Structures are given as C-alpha cells and as structure tokens.
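Progress report, Aim 2. The chain analyzed during this reporting quarter is listed below.
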Amino acid sequence: MSKLIHYPLGEAPQILESDWLLWQPKDTAAPVPSGRQIIPFKYWVHHSQDSELLNRALAGEIGVWFSEDDDVLQSSQLIHAGKKFWPLVAINFSIFRDGRGYSTAALLRDRLAWNGPIWATGDVLIDQLNQLARVGFDHFVLRADQDSNLALTQFSQYSVFMQNSWRSPRTKSELEKVLS
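Predicted structure tokens for the chain:
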C-alpha cells in the first residue's frame, strides 16, 4: 500500500503515505514476509502461538485483516486477546457491494471495544466513504481507479446526520436546526 486516507475521530481527513502491506498468502503455511504486514485473520488463528509472529506483532509489525466471511463475534475471545498485539485491523472488501464489512467494523467498535485503527481495503469506492466512516472506519485504502483528492471532499458533503454513528451521536439541537 502507499496512499491512504487517514480520518481519525475528531480530526480532519488527510492523505498519508503508508508502508503497511496487505498480505494475501496463497499457502497458509507460508512465512509472513518481512516489513509491516496486515495478515489474514484466518492465518493469525492458525499461527497465533508462533513466537516469531507474536514478537513481530508486539513490535508493531503485524496487523490482521478480516474477510467478509470472518465471524468476529464467534472469534471474540481471540480478538480481545489480539488487542494487545495488533496495532491495527483491516476489513477487506472483495467487492464493493458486499455490506458485511460495515457490520464487522460496527461490531468491532461497539461490542468488542476495539479502539485502534480500522482500515477499509480492497474494492473501496469514494461513494462509500461517509458510510464507512460512520460505522467505525478511520483509514481508507481506495481502489486504484479512485481519486484520493476527490475522496477528501466526501467527508464534508453533509453537515447534519439524522442517525447516531461511531463518529457523532445525533443531538436534539441538530435535529431542531434541521426541522426549523
């Protein structure tokens, strides 16, 4: 990965460079390459007792990514344990129209109390950014054909939201402003 949009809670979005790589192994026995790697959660499940992998994770070099079919609630104990190892988690969208990644992010934030970064990777489009940000994503790696500078404008497109979200609860005063 190189460019991503960083939109932390309470701050303005910005484009950053990143040296993190999303690793997609063809073989579950393959060793994790050197450098900062975001590895599949399924790989972590099978190799979570590997001392080298644990040491790299503790050193801030290993994050995990969830696919659309990873059940985070069923794996909640492993995810709670992973909080002390992973500097970030990512949710990979294999296709933009699969909404399960939104639910995964919301569950990580709301039920599993994940306070670290959540990245949206894969088939991520500009049109999705507001909704992704509202459910808990704070880093966005756009699909290669998407314009990062245009993407930044998406976050200021709306000034008032009628629903609660991870970013901001709906307030009565906001509702009154809209209705008056």
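Residues 102 and 135 are 6 Å apart (CA to CA). The chain has a mean pLDDT of 90. These observations will guide the mutagenesis work planned for the next reporting period.
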